[in-house]
Each structure stands twice: as C-alpha cells, then as structure tokens.
Fold each of these.
Amino acid sequence: MTDKLQRLTYVEDEPDIRSITEFALKELGGYELDVCASGPEAIDRTPDFNPDLIILDVMMPGMDGIETYKRLRAIPQLAETPIVFMTAKAMKHETERYRALGAADVIPKPFDPITLPDRVREIWQQVRKTAVAS
Amino acid sequence: MTMQEQLRALVERHLANLVVELARVSELLTPNSDTGALPLAQVVAAQEITHQLKGTAGSMGFSEIGATASALDENLKTLKKMPDPISAAQLQPALELLGSLRRIAESTTPAMSALYNADLSKLAQ
C-alpha cells in the first residue's frame, strides 16, 4: 500500500453524478482518475490501471455494484485494494451489508462535491492506519 | 475554462437533464385513461429514475429538489409493494409529489445551486 493516495478508479453509470464526481476528484482533489461507466468496464480496465482505491456505485443496470465488487475482489491483483461504495442506498442495514462484504467505507448520496476529496483522503488515512496496525 | 466555469456548466447541464428526466417519470406514472390504474412495472421504472435523481440533484447543490425527489422516492417504494395494478387512489399522493417536484424544478435556475457560487480558490491543488 502506497503512503499517498494518488490513483483512483471511479465506477458510476449516471452521467451527471459521474461528471460532478470526476470534477471533484480530479480538479479539486488532484487525483489521477480512471472513470468507468459500468461494472464490466471496471473489471476490464482496473487491473491495468492498478488504483490505490476504488469508488463504486451500487445501483447500476446489468451488473450492479455488489456483483462488480465481488468480481473485482476475485482479481488477485485487486484482492486487497480498498473499495468504497458511493450510494443513495445508505440506510443503516444497507451500509452494514457493504461493510460485511469488506467495503472500506460508504459515502452516501447526496454528497458535497466540494468536500469529497477530503472525505476520500480521510477514508484512505483510516485504511492505512488499520493496515499498519494489523 | 476556469474551474468555476466548468462547475457552472455541469450544474446547468444537470438542471436541463433533470427536467427531461422528470418528464419521463411523469409519462411512466400516467395511468390508463379508461381504468385509471397503472401497471406496477411502470412504478418500478419511475422509482429507479427518481431514486437516481434524489442523489444527483442533492449532489449538484439543489437541496430542495433532492428533498422532494426523496419524498417521491419513498412514496414509490411503498407503491412497489402493492398488488399489480396500482389504483388511481393509491397513485394520487405520488402524482401530487411529482407535480410539486416538477414545479420546483421548472422554477429553479442554475444560480440557485449551492455549487454555483462556491469559492473554489482555496480548494484547488
């Protein structure tokens, strides 16, 4: 695990939310970003991009975020890569389900794009702290 | 294009898309003209769009639209659990919420987004 968060994969099917998140993470956060519009696209491209962290929408047509999560996890190179769900399905029982799957954290929609880069950085720091402790 | 201009362009495009998406929801929630009933499949499709709008509008700085879309989303989730088809009386609260949502969206301008005049100067890296 690298010290500094630099490379992010972001998976989202809805064009408007994809655009504002891309703007927030790339322009405001300064991250190097690979944006995927579907689960299959993410499975195809993410091993080569080799991100430090993955942000994944849950409700997507065809392959949803949960299935995409499981398939990404099955790729040996990505087995330990932190994955964060970004979703409007963020009731307590839903976030507990994502965490039980092994998600690093959950960012509920709607979110504030201005503070999103800081939120992602906080998650990264927490993940690193946990990794060092174990 | 400055970052502020880029952000404003995203907000403007979203608001235009929002009006189109709400027209789609309205079409889906139009009951059969003879019976007044609505196939459950149309409620399911309308709820999926509304659910997405709730997250997107709120994230684009349109909190009132996001909150009203959230109320409609909850109402449609309840309707989804009812037997097929949905009666006119069962549908009425959803249609009223949709009417409110469309009125709010149509009277909203991009400058009303919380992001439109956000100070980005201290954030850019």
Amino acid sequence: MNILDASCETLNPDETRVAIESLRDPDWLKLRKIASIHASRCKANWEDILNEAFCRALEDRRKCKKNLNIIVFLDGTMRSIANYRNKASKSDPLEHVIPIFKETDEGLVITVDLPDNCTPDNELEAQQTLESFEELFDGDDEATMVLMGHQDNLPPNEIQELAGLNKTQYATVLRRIRRRFEKLATEGATK
Amino acid sequence: MTSKMNSPRKKLDRLADKLIDDLYETSDEEIMSEAKEDYADLNTAVSDVKNIWQFAQQAIGKRRLQTTKDSFKKERESTRKEAPSKVTDINEARLLLRNLINKTDITEKITLAARNLDDLSDQDVFNILKDLQELGAIPNGDS
C-alpha cells in the first residue's frame, strides 16, 4: 500500500459532513440514544457529548475510515470523549501514585506505579451511577440478573442460563434495561 | 481489594458497551417505535439532535472565520512593520517589491509575470506597489 492509498482511506471533513447530513430519522434517534449512554459514563449531558463529537469530526481532529458506518464512527468518538473526561477528573492523579522501592546494586531505586486512569472520585461516581441504576430494577429479578451478568462480563448464553431466560426473553430484558438506562442518563444530566 | 477488571468504572463501561451493542441490533422500526413511547414528541426528539448538528457546524464555521481573520490581521501587521513610509526611489521600490515577492503569503497576490522584476519597467514597479497599497497588502506611504 502506498502513501496515496493510505490517505484515501479516511473521509475528509466535507465527506464526513455529507455522511452525517444523509442520516435518516432512526439514525438521528440512535445517535441520541448512544450519546445518552456515553454521557452517563462521565456524568455529562448527552447534548454536550454529541456536540463535541460532531465538532471533532468537522475539524478533522478525528478521522472516519471510508468503510466505517458514520454512526459507529461517532459512537467511537463519543466513547473517546467520555474516557477523556473521566481521565481529566478533578482529583490530582499524582495523589494516587504508588511508590515502589527496589534494592539494586546501585542502591535503593524508587519507581512509581501509576494507577489505572480513574481516580477514587471517579470510581465513586461510577459506583453511584451503577447503584442508582440497580435501584430502578429493585424487585425485577430477571433484569437484575442480566444487569449483574453484564457488569461481570459474563457471556450472554451464561447469563441466560443463570437467569433462566431463553434468547427472546433475554433480548427483551436487555432492551428494557437499555431504555431505562437511557432515561436515567437523560434525567440524571438535568438534575 | 477490588481488581481493576471489577472496579465500578469497568463494570459501568462494560454495561454501557453492551447496551450500545443492543442498540445496533435494534431495527429502525423498533427504534422509531421506542422513541414514540419514550419521548413526548417524536419530531422534537429528532430535531433536537439535528439542532445539535447545526450548532456544531455553526460553531466550527465561526471558529474558522475567526482564525482566518486573525491570520489576515497578523499578515497585515507584519507587512506594515517592514514597509517604508513613502517610496519614491526606483531602487528602493524594486528592493521593497522583491522582499514582498519573497514572502510566500504575499506572492499569491502578485501575478506570476511580475515575479521577474528585472523585466519590469520603473513605471510597472511603481504601479504594482500602488496596487498593493490599494489592496491593503502594504500601507499607503502618505498615511
């Protein structure tokens, strides 16, 4: 592959604009729903997350591959924005650096282990979001099982087996959870 | 101790990813049907998103205009600093024009033919400088 081929693989801002303009009503709604889910990951407004994703695409700060669906591209951009916002949480990450002391031939060497991207504040925020969400399904055993299964990264067939659901029932429960999640995310941001 | 894989953040991320996967598996008809139930007004729900798109385009457009405006301003100020107050001497005029031509941002404003200064008559040199003053590329010597 030569350099020219590689440069042709992504949409330029005008092509990105055209691709977004060509979205249909269900696509716009899908984007709205995706934005509200990503917004709940970083306690932001879905409008802000989506607006920022559009701006990054228009400014060519994030490039869309030509063979990629524009919604998938914007989804990835919003995910990246949410991750960035989580990393840039208010706490000073240096406060959470873990010093590692090691004896070597040259004496005591101190290195540091940087914790994962999230600070305790950020983890607490995630915990609160999960708890407020779980409360919504208090008494709904099926939803609670599916919810917990996905949090723990279990495969769908295992969740279905544990929750005693067939494929269709599982899909219905998952959809119920998603719609509640979107609703919570939208309402949460306005609080 | 909570491992990184089981931290609340990871759990929330995994759940969010799964729910988005479910959205991709939802047909357009189902999305529309859900939206009718979930939003007070379907048209407003769609136009809310389209409005965000419009706002983003306007914001980027304004940002681009401002950047261009700033760049023009910077270019004018830079040229103004180097330009003489008034040019009457032909050698000085040729030197000034040559310096301007050598600047990449100015060359675009001068025709290709004019780049070969030695072929220009004295009058042509004064005329080009006058044109450039009128275009605002260099300040008017009288001002």
